[in-house]
Specification:
Pfam families: Polysacc_deac_1. With about 270 residues, this protein is α/β, with parallel strands linked by helices. It is about 45% helix and about 10% strand. The strands form 2 sheets. Strands 2, 3, 4, 7, 8 and 9 form a 6-stranded parallel beta sheet that branches. A 3-stranded parallel beta sheet has the order 1-6-5, with no helix packed on it. Bound molecules: zinc ion. Zinc ion binds next to loops.
Length: about 270
């Protein structure tokens, strides 16, 4: 059972307790505020698995293997990112936005041709995604999946919700479209922090075997950070893997017999 279901259950038990013990209004207010605070935390922190089951790292903590993931592309900077990955013989995973795929179709083809994974990151990446209906979120997932399939003949089944936000509608859309949600456990904050050095130091401190690192292939800053990161990983003996390799899951639908291969998410 998801954590959201538990907390709703506990909320109603406590509400009933307050009602039967004729508690003061203040206690009702405190309970509601606490419930709303927990729900918002659950919506914004993908690692909590509050509304959906999200994979945020590999359970293999022995091998020095990690996954680098890029959100919000393809973008003009993705070419430089791909050049660097190729120079250091590294593999990564790109969670692409449908609208961006329409602008940079050749980049999508190159991502696949060079052995990286492609995931779905919605069609519009709207700031209002958290308020969309289940139907709207599912149709964005399907639309982006179709755009990717038209270019590279692969139907991706790995999804990262915009901003890492989850809620009941997003969770329903994910199960309706058979997606596996991939989160992260190392957040670079590369779209927030100005200094490249600080971003790199932040990532370096947090890397452990099995980590999934979140970056964005949308700025020159990230290109610089990536090169430092790849040099660091090389010197520490880390291998970079795609999400498919790191988690030992199927990133794409098996289309030749029209069957899904279920991800072994317990690995
Ligand atoms: Zn994003």
């Amino acid at each position: 059972m998801l954590r959201h279901t538990y907390s709703v259950f506990i909320f109603f038990i406590l509400l009933a307790f307050l009602f039967f013990t004729k508690a003061s209004v203040l206690l009702y207010v405190l309970l509601i505020v606490a419930f709303l605070a927990i729900t918002s935390w659950g919506a914004f922190d993908i690692r909590l698995n509050y509304f959906s089951t999200n994979i945020c790292r590999s359970n293999n903590k022995k091998d020095k293997e990690i996954a680098i993931t890029f959100d919000d592309g393809p973008h003009e900077k993705t070419i430089e990112i791909l050049d660097l990955l190729s120079k250091y013989n590294a593999k990564a995973t790109f969670f692409c936005i449908g609208k961006q795929i329409e602008k940079y179709p050749k980049t999508v083809e190159r991502i696949i041709a060079e052995g990286h994974n492609i995931g779905n990151h919605s069609y519009s990446h709207s700031n209002w995604n958290g308020f969309f209906s289940t139907k709207k979120i599912a149709s964005e997932i399907e639309h982006t999946k179709e755009l990717i399939a038209q270019l590279v003949h692969k139907k991706t089944r790995i999804y990262r919700p915009p901003f890492g936000v989850t809620n009941p509608n997003i969770s329903r859309a994910i199960s309706r479209t058979n997606q596996v949600v991939i989160g992260w456990n190392v957040r670079s904050l590369d779209t927030v922090i100005e200094s490249e050095v600080l971003i790199f130091e932040r990532i370096k401190k947090r890397i452990k075997p099995g980590s999934i690192i979140l970056l964005h292939d949308t700025s020159a800053k990230t290109v610089w950070v990536l090169e430092q990161l790849l040099l660091f990983l090389q010197s520490e003996g880390y291998k970079t893997k795609t999400i498919e390799e790191l988690l030992d899951i199927q990133a794409y639908e098996i289309t030749n017999n029209n069957q899904f291969v279920q991800a072994n998410i317990n690995k």
